[in-house]
Amino acid sequence: MTDPAPTPTPDTVSFGYEDIPAQEKTARVGGVFTSVAAKYDLMNDAMSGGMHRLWKDRFVRRVKPREGEQVLDMAGGTGDIAFRLAASGAAVTVADINPAMLEVGMERAAKRGIDGLVWTEANAEVLQFPDRFFDAYTIAFGIRNVTDIPKALREAHRVLRRGGRFYCLEFSTTLWPGFGDVYDAYSHKVVPKLGQLLAGDPESYRYLIESIRRFPDMEKFKGMIAEAGFVQTKVEPMLGGLVAIHSGWKI
User: Fold this and answer.
1) Is there a binding annotation on residue 26?
2) CATH of domain 36-249
3) Which stretches does DSSP call E strand in 101-229?
4) Where exactly are the transmembrane stretches of this chain (predicted)?
5) Is 78 within any annotated ligand binding site?
6) Digits of tens for pLDDT over the chain (251 positions)?
7) Where are the domains of the chain?
8) Deepest in the core among 5, 146, 181, 190, taking most CB within 10 A?
9) pTM given for the model
10) Is 96 annotated for ligand binding?
11) Is 226 exposed, middle or buried (0-12, 13-18, 19+ CB in 10 A)?
C-alpha cells in the first residue's frame, strides 16, 4: 500500500498527505465539504458500489436507538444516519460544522416527509450542548475530518449521560492480505476520476481518500476512545477493517 506521509508535528495536523497548521484545517475541510455537498451521496454510491448503505444499516442496528431517547448524530449533515435513527422513534439532533451539508440534509428530509429532526450547526470539538444531555452519540465518516480528534472524543463523552453510548463508523486499514493493495490502487487512481466525472471536483475526493490513509488504525483509535473516558470499548471490522464500527460506554 502507499506509504502515508510523515506524522505531523505538534504544531501541525494532516490534511490528506499534507501537514498544515492546525488552525487552517477546519476552514480547508469546510471548503471540501461545501464543494461536494450536492453530490455527496451520489459519490458515496459510486465509490463504494452502494455498500455504504449496508454499512450504515449495520451501524444503526448496533446503536439500537429506542423511542424517546435523545441521540446526537455528529457530522450527520446529509441525514443518512439520522433518517435511520429516527425510524425508531428516537429524538435525533443532526449536527454538522458545514451549513451546506445541513442544507442538503434538510432538503432530503423534506422530500421524504421526515419531520421532527433537529438540525444545528456545531463543531465537534466545542459542542454547545449541556453536560449529560444525550443517550447516544453517533458519528459516521466524520471523525477523521476533525482537527483535534481527542478533543472531539472528550466532548462526546461530556454530552453523554451516564450509561450513554458512543458509536463511530469510519474507514480504517484493511488487514486482508492483498485486498489493501487493490483498494489502495482503486482509491488513488479511480476515485479522483469519479470525482471529476460526477462532481467536477477531483481534488476534494483526492483529499477524502488521503484522509483515510492518515487516520489511526483500528486499535490505536480504540485506545483514543478509551483515553477520552469511555469503557468497554470495542471495534467491529468490516471487509477486514476497511470500514470499522468503534464503540464505547460512559459510566
Assistant:
1) no
2) 3.40.50.150
3) 118-121, 134-140, 160-171
4) none
5) yes
6) 444 444 545 567 665 556 657 766 777 666 666 666 666 777 677 667 778 899 999 999 999 999 999 999 999 988 999 999 999 999 999 999 999 889 999 999 999 999 999 999 999 999 999 999 999 999 999 998 898 999 999 999 999 999 999 999 998 888 887 776 777 776 767 777 777 776 676 776 777 777 777 889 999 999 999 999 999 999 999 988 889 999 999 99
7) 36-249
8) 146
9) 0.83
10) yes
11) middle
